[in-house]
Amino acid sequence: MKRSFFLCVLSVFGVSAFADEAPAAVECRRAVAPMKIDGRLDEPAWSHAQIVTFQRAWMPADQRQPPTQTKARLLWDDDYLYFAAEMEDTDVFADVTAQDGPLWTNDVFELFFKPSKEKQGYYEFEINAANTKFDMFMPSRGSGGASRHAKEREFHIESEVVVHGTLNDWSDRDTGWSIEGRIPWSDFALTGGRPAVGDTWLHALCRYDFSAGLEEQALSSSAPLKAVNFHRYEDYVPLRFVDVSPP
Q: How far apart are CA 220 and CA 71, in angstroms?
């Protein structure tokens, strides 16, 4: 499977106590106003979304806090699943510009969605700090990975990135980058398309941070993963689709 070096070599850190706790569900709330995809997260709807923070649950208790922080949000409406994240980063790096390229070698934001607990299939979406995209449906973890499925079908992700600093210049100090995007429900047709109010999926939001000031790449996730493997959907967090009006 792709990323075997990055995801497997760190597994020596073991399992944290946090990883054994049952995670609470995250609410994916309805976007009640039009969304402009520009990477700036200034639409009123985002202030109504649940904020999700990242951690390294596979690490010992005193090392679970990532060196750079992430705040992510999810929303939905009749047409799209929306996502956004604000990420601290002192050295924003992304040099892969080819669609479905190896974005996990860059600063990248990743989204994993598993609509059914009973069925093996799940989705992986990635966007790096240069706004390059990777998208894939995996019928199962053992079906062949990215080498087989990355270019198998066309997805229709729209996204924009804002870099707070200079991209690919390690000699200065950046403050971070933000991303905003949406995925049409038609891209989830293989697993039934748009969910209904009250439906629950499994999901994980993940991140790679490569920075000149770090001893090693910083990996983090919204899910309490028991091992450094972003495809470990046994540890994903329930995502409940709700129709909640803002206050």
A: 11
